[in-house]
Write a structure and sequence with these properties.
The complex is a heterodimer of chains A (167) and B (564). By secondary structure, chain A is α+β, with helices and mostly antiparallel strands. Helices cover 28% and strands 42% of the residues of chain A. Chain A starts with a strand and ends in a 12-residue tail after the last strand. In chain B, strand 18, helix 23 and strand 19 form a beta-alpha-beta unit. With 564 residues, chain B is α/β, with parallel strands linked by helices. Classes of the chains: A alpha+beta (167), B alpha/beta (564). Chains A and B meet through helix 1 and helix 2 of A and loops of B. The structure holds thiamine diphosphate and magnesium ion.
């Protein structure tokens, strides 16, 4: 199972080491990790996507809550959260394929941010599903470089527990 | 008032009621040591930083108070790591203060620089690297608070040398306001969980209590005794819970698990209600989880939410301080009828007692039995790690909590001697006996010098089998007697070594001298080392093989089992 943890921590040096260290030390699997400021400058939000058995996923939240600098841990099951990831990808694009690639990029709402004689660099964002589909779509052309930010996430405000958004 | 960083930290330590320090100075901590001369609590100069940490650990386990451990940067601090890990595993409070190179040198591979903040993250409850003299007051207070509240544990403050001598205005405050939100609140009494447990107790036919370190740490022994006696429910104590219930009481079933008593393990396998009070279901206790308490409803009371459901699925989880929960249980207790069950476990106790054979050699269990006899269970008992530790856990019958000092979670050989010294500092009026192994003792025996220097009259009984006995036992049983590197045929003469340190040393080779030598040691006014050359191939029984279920316990060596 995959689980999103939205963790509010004191904005201290060392806090990321404590959080990341917990995952290595206890053998939990991190799929992605992203950290950044929040509306409150003393607080940082760390978003971690982890994979594990159900029991282990609860254990992770409990262990996180014990960390001194952790203020709040929200366990968001994957379909209960707004999740977004930013991806930059350089696609091999010989002149003959260029317009086809740009068309495909448009279909995904991706922006062209750089172009050379034989490459196109795209910027796209979306939830995990979209990013995966997009990368799959460009795989055939050849992706020469790629960078992903890792997931960031917020819970859907005011939605009932069993609500399942479509995308 | 203007003070420097070292002075501020010492003021804060004094204000927090720190009464004891252990450590070794060095370049990066010298300004702090200079001020320590004026502190009104004693500092014990040890021979190794690991020893200092174990002393503070032993001191805390016996007194319930936190001590500080002071080292220099680099090697001084890295020598602490084992001591911190040990305290972390057994939830023992201590505050380590390590010197660090000056802030402008951090990260330059300066002389004796080590990333002690990074190294200590996984082995402390929390740690700090001080970067500004104005943080000292807050950090010192927080460090002591974090170490001693909730589930206790070790903390570390890394203290750069330049900040130790930086001046700032210091205002002692009654309670320094925290720039952070108040610590998470103590869990409220879970009355719903308690009601569920009360109902389960009333319904049960074969209930059993397992009491862990939580009983000792929360000071719940009296409540536990009241509860168990009123309900007529038998009590098992984990390795770290020993002393939490009187060892001589008829309801006591001893220790569970790998080297537990037969009757404790039988009771776990047969019970229909397990009441876990402050134990963390360690793998040495549960054996294979799938065959742990297969017939029981499991209730688990713990101060640490993360322990609940960590390894064993719990039907009645109760988050809270064990003592508070026990007093609530005592108020409303409605026991069921457990007469048949009582008959069953009393029969087990009678038919499967702990035992050992006689063959004219010094049996290690016999030495422990004799220590028990001359101290009547009223001493403080400390151990190393190995077979001798398990025998001590089996054969000593504790009368009180906080009289048993052993490295449980980490199983740290070498813990014994320094921990015993720390224990004696905590309770000088008590007889402190260290039951140690030859392997374990050799790891930290240098602290005999500390015992001699400060005249700390600990009594050391080495059960010297010239083996890493526990390793040898596993090799005998599970590696077809291939004794790979577990033998010390050329063990040093520990009696003479002791004398060299200025400590009375006696080698004992004859079983008829055991009792005498113990009495001599007890009466001697100062530390003593008794080096018992014991039977080399004695094994610890019963035994649940690693990875097996408690129902697969072997009671005795195959030969003896066949006979009886
Ligand atoms: C620091 C450390 N190193 C290694 C071990 C692994 N180990 C566990 S018990 C044991 C043997 C202990 O020998 P000794 O102290 O002589 O005790 P005995 O078992 O012989 O009573 C060893 C090597 C350990 N627990 N701690
Ligand atoms: Mg030995």
């Amino acid at each position: 199972m995959r689980q999103v943890y939205s963790i509010l921590v004191n904005n201290h040096a060392g806090v990321l080491s404590h959080v990341a260290g917990l995952f290595t030390r206890r053998g939990y699997n991190i799929e992605s990790i992203a950290a950044g400021p929040t509306e409150d400058t003393t607080i940082t939000r760390i978003v971690i996507v982890a994979i594990g058995e159900e029991n282990e996923l609860d254990q992770i939240a409990k262990q996180l809550r014990k960390l001194y600098d952790v203020r709040e841990v929200e366990q968001i099951s994957y379909n209960q959260a707004v999740t977004r990831e930013l991806v930059l990808a350089t696609i091999k694009a010989p002149i003959t394929k260029r317009s086809e690639i740009i068309q495909l990029a448009n279909a995904f709402g991706a922006q062209v941010i750089n172009m050379t004689d034989d490459t196109v660099t795209l910027e796209a964002s979306g939830n995990d599903h979209k990013v995966r589909t997009l990368l799959k779509a460009f795989e055939g052309y050849g992706i020469s470089q790629m960078a992903r930010t890792g997931m960031i996430s917020l819970p859907y405000d005011g939605m009932p527990e069993d609500w399942e958004p479509i995308a | 008032m203007e003070l420097n960083g070292s002075q501020i930290m010492i003021e804060e330590l004094k204000a927090a009621g720190i009464e004891m320090a252990f450590g070794i100075p060095g370049g990066a901590i010298m300004p702090f040591y200079d001020e320590l001369l004026k502190a009104d609590f004693p500092h014990i100069l040890t021979r190794h930083e690991q020893g200092a940490a174990h002393m503070a650990d032993g001191y805390a386990r016996v007194s319930g108070k936190v001590a500080i451990v002071v080292t220099t940067s680099g090697p001084g601090a890295t020598n602490l790591i084992t001591g911190l890990a040990n305290a972390q595993m057994d939830s023992v409070p201590l505050v380590a203060i390590t010197g660090q190179v000056a802030t402008n040198m951090i990260g330059t591979d300066a002389f004796q620089e080590a990333d002690v903040y990074g190294c200590s993250i996984p082995v402390t409850k929390f740690n700090w690297l001080i970067k500004d003299v104005n943080e000292i007051q807050h950090v010192t207070r927080e460090a002591i608070r974090v170490a001693t509240t909730g589930r206790p544990g070790p903390v570390l403050i890394d203290f750069p040398k330049d900040i130790q001598i930086t001046n700032t205005v210091y205002t002692p405050r009654e309670s320094a306001e925290s720039p952070l939100p108040a610590p998470r609140e103590y869990p409220e009494l879970d009355t719903e969980g308690i009601d569920k447990l009360l109902a389960a107790i009333e319904r049960a036919e074969r209930p059993v209590i397992i009491g862990g370190a939580g009983i000792i740490k929360s000071g719940a022994s009296a409540e536990l005794a009241k509860f168990a006696k009123a309900a007529g429910i038998p009590v098992i104590n984990t390795l770290l819970g020993l002393g939490g219930f009187p060892g001589t009481n008829e309801l006591f079933l001893g220790m569970p698990g790998m080297h537990g008593t037969a009757y404790a393990n039988f009771a776990l396998c047969e019970c229909d209600l397990l009441i876990n009070l402050g134990a963390r279901f360690d793998d040495r206790v549960t054996g294979k989880v799938s065959s742990f308490c297969p017939k029981a409803t499991i209730a688990h009371v713990d101060i640490d939410d993360a322990e609940i459901d960590k390894r064993v699925h719990t039907h009645i989880p109760i988050l809270g301080n064990v003592r508070d929960v026990l007093s609530a249980l005592n108020e409303h207790l409605r026991p069921g009828d457990y007469d048949e069950w009582r008959q069953t476990w009393t029969d087990w106790k009678e038919n499967y007692p702990l035992q050992y054979d006689w063959d004219g050699s010094i049996k290690p269990q016999y030495v422990i039995d004799q220590i028990q006899e001359i101290t009547e269970g009223n001493g403080i008992y400390v151990t190393g790690v190995g077979q001798h530790q398990m025998w001590a856990a089996q054969f000593i019958r504790f009368n009180e909590p906080k009289t048993w000092v052993t490295s449980g979670g980490l199983g740290t050989m070498g813990f014994g001697l320094p921990a015993a010294i720390g224990a004696k500092f905590a309770r000088p009026e008590k007889d402190v006996w260290l039951i140690d192994g030859d392997g374990s003792f050799a790891m930290t025996l240098v602290e005999l010098a500390t015992a001699a220097t400060y005249n700390v009259p600990v009594k050391v009984a080495i059960l010297n089998n010239a083996y890493l006995g526990m390793v040898r036992q596993w090799q005998e049983l599970f590696f077809e007697k291939r004794y790979s590197h577990s033998h010390y045929p050329e063990n040093p003469d520990f009696g003479t070594i002791a004398e060299g340190y200025g400590v009375k040393g006696i080698n004992v080779t004859d079983v008829n001298e055991v009792r005498n030598s113990l009495e001599t040691a007890a009466e001697h006014d100062g530390p003593v080392v008794l080096n018992f050359l014991v039977n080399k191939e004695e094994n610890v029984w019963p035994m649940v093989p690693a990875g097996a279920g408690n129902d697969e316990m072997q009671l005795a060596p195959p030969s003896r089992e066949a006979k009886s």
